[in-house]
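Bit of a strange request maybe. I'm writing a small parser for structure token strings and I need a real example to test against, not something I typed by hand. Could someone generate the tokens for this chain?
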Amino acid sequence: MTEDGDDSAADRAEVFARMKPRKMLCYSDAPYVTRLMRLIETQSKPTVVNWCVDYAERYYLPIWEKYAPDDRTPHTALETARKWLRKEVKCQAVRDVAWDSHTAARTAGAPEAATAAAGAVANAALTCHVATHSIRVAFYGAAAVAYDRLGLRESQEAYDAAAAGECARLEAALRAVAAENEPNPVACKWRDMNNIGKKIRGNRHEHTT
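Reply from user aminoacidic:
Good idea to test on real output. This should exercise your parser:
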């Protein structure tokens, strides 16, 4: 601690070195998350799946490729989701390769940004199975973008701002492809998202011993 009471750069670095980044950012009762949920509820399942897969391929897959260029497991998850949209495979096939995407990142010891990106891709594919995975795309995706751009030692406010910005971009992308007066909107049960939000909110990092 410095004489004027402020932590020195060395002190802050030591504290951050003992902290573990969270796997996801955002929380379920944030206004920008609630707004995204309400929009998702107005669209058909194919529209939601297409949006998730397209967005993940464009923005999150490159983050994975940056850190793990030789592992194409997340690519396979998105490709299989597209096959589901074309009715070429069953949902179970998508689920299998999507979980492989999650597992690949964890077992490879990939950096936090890559792990979050793989999580976002996996949940984009899993939207074929359950539509509520679409909001997990935002949670994991916000972490992937924030950790890739900001690193792991920024302030809580900086990560919150990054999460809000990423959700705004996701919302804009969905609005660009949204159907007006969709006759078959997807059924979403968001109750599990409340538990996720409680775990994430106000605690971006966990101390490790």
